[in-house]
Amino acid sequence: MTNQSVTTLVLAGSRGPEDPVAKLAGVSHKAFAPIGGVPMLVRVVRALAAAPSVGTIHIAIERPELVREHSELGLLLAGGRIALVPAAGSPSLSVASALETLGTPLFVTTADHALLQPEWVEYFLNHLPDGSDVCVGLARDSTIQAAVPDTQRTYLRFADGAFSGCNFFAFRTPTAINVARIWRQVEAQRKHPLRMIRLLGPFSILRFLLGRLTLGMALARLGQITGARAGVVEMPYGLAAVDVDKAADMALAERLLAR
Hints:
Blueprint: E1 6-11, H1 20-25, E2 34-35, E3 38-39, H2 40-49, E4 54-60, H3 65-68, H4 71-78, E5 82-85, H5 91-102, E6 106-110, H6 118-126, E7 134-140, H7 141-147, E8 156-158, E9 161-171, H8 177-188, H9 193-198, H10 202-209, H11 215-226, E10 230-234, H12 247-258
Parallel strand pairs: 1-4, 1-6, 4-5, 7-10
Antiparallel strand pairs: 2-3, 6-9, 7-9, 8-9
């Protein structure tokens, strides 16, 4: 996937007026909440632009004027380094819409990835499993705790380890759009691991409850449901699992950047 520059999508849509991060920062979109004095979206775009494998950076947002009127982002937009696409009603719908417009391969991340580093992006894109249609970046609990012991993450606990998402997704082939179509069900349950597992069917639930469901089994079952071969890149960077969803995350990101 890194033999050529990869078209990239940043999800920067609004989560509504009650989003805790947007409210705390006094902005309409969480993406523009400042961390260390710099809006999160700007931090993400800077990191992506510094990653050699990243091509045009498309930003999905309902209010494109927020990007056009920002001094740094506006220049990047005028120069063609970034582009704008409409945001839909949810991340999954935005991704599905972008896949229809931009095609594959498509690398997707989020605007609240305030700590994003170019080397994380390069590692992910250079370690995509052969033969996979869609891939996700995950970090193991021990890796996250070693890097940042004072964070609380939501973990999916499998027989071979507990993992948290890193907001890295690679849609590599047209078949991957089938995964985007069920993503809407998953995102509604993302803070409830057992409900997410329930989407895989009763036998997977039983194995999960008995502690016998491995990550590989879950991926194989997902492939059966969607017809797309799913893969995982286990990230060696614990900080890659830290995004900004609440006030405590903002404070944590500020502390980490201050180091």
